[in-house]
Amino acid sequence: MSQQLPQRQAYMLSDLGIRLRKIVSSQDGDTPVRYSHQDDYYIIGMVDKGTGHGFIDFKEIAISQGEIFLVQPRQVHRFIGSEDVECRMLLADNSYVGHEEKRIFDKFRLFGSSVKTDERRMGELKQLFAMLANRINHVTDEQTKATVRRLTETYIGIVAETIRETELQQARHSHRHIEIVLSFLHLLAGHLATSRSPSYYASQLNISPVYLNEVVKEVTGMSATFYIRNELILQAKRLLVHTGLSVKEISDRLGIEDSAYFSRIFTQTAGISPSTFRRRNLE
């Protein structure tokens, strides 16, 4: 039977589909949200001062001055500690993220969640943030609304530029291999509950299962089979934390009819049972 869990989101977006937050942890009550939650929008954080750490999709991250961090829609996240951190956060609806920016962000998710930026770009982002803050609460007509949208899109574009240039400097994989993996992940997102066979995804990509496995392992460090299982467990973790569905209901939603088998592979992969994982992440 489903449990009644709160559908946790940190903040609601404005009617424009954006929200700005300035976090100063030294001020009482002004800290990033510390419970695990999931949002349906992008969160871009810029660290002005201090350090902090938390989890994005159950992987620990550390952030420090001069870094930009990115939380993508549906990623479960929480912040668990900070040392005099000051940061600015832009929360933006998917409609503000263009096709190319989305591809850059999807690629970035393969390798990390934060990136160091230079002083010039940091200055540009601070100026844009200030301009948005001056306008967002005084939108009185369509022209002002259009200006806010353009400023937001420019802010996101500069963040995407920063991520892309860092990746180019640290390029380790061929463009073709990255594109194959991104296409594989896109297919996986839509078909995970109905197909978990690498050969299915290889056929959709018009390549051999052996080649798919080689490319996925080169880029992610995991075989295609193992990556598919990890993605299955990630989706299960998200459902355990963000919904009140029972373990059996989650198993059914993920296309596994035998809930005992689902619990077994979850425990093998995560190291703890689904019920224990839920309890620990809702404390």
Q: What features would you describe in this structure?
A:
With 283 residues, the protein is α+β, with helices and mostly antiparallel strands. The protein is built from ten helices and seven strands. Strands 1, 2, 3, 4, 5, 6 and 7 form a seven-stranded antiparallel sheet that branches. It is globular, with a radius of gyration of 20 Å. The mean pLDDT is 88.
Short synopsis of the structure:
This protein has 283 residues and is of the alpha+beta class.
Question: Descriptors for this entry?
Answer:
single chain, 283 residues, alpha+beta, seven-stranded antiparallel β-sheet, 10 helices, 7 strands, globular
Span between termini: 21 Å
**Total count of helical runs of at least 4 residues:** 10
Seen as an oligomer or otherwise, the chain set is single chain
What structural class do the secondary elements suggest? alpha+beta
Rg (C-alpha, Å): 20 Å
Percent of residues in β-strands? 15-25%
Q: Percent range for helical residues?
A: 40-55%
Determine the mean pLDDT. Answer: 88
Q: Tally of extended strands? A: 7
Largest sheet: 7 strands, antiparallel
Q: How would the global form be characterised? A: globular
Order of helices and strands: EEEEEEHEHHHHHHHHH
- Give the low-confidence spans: none
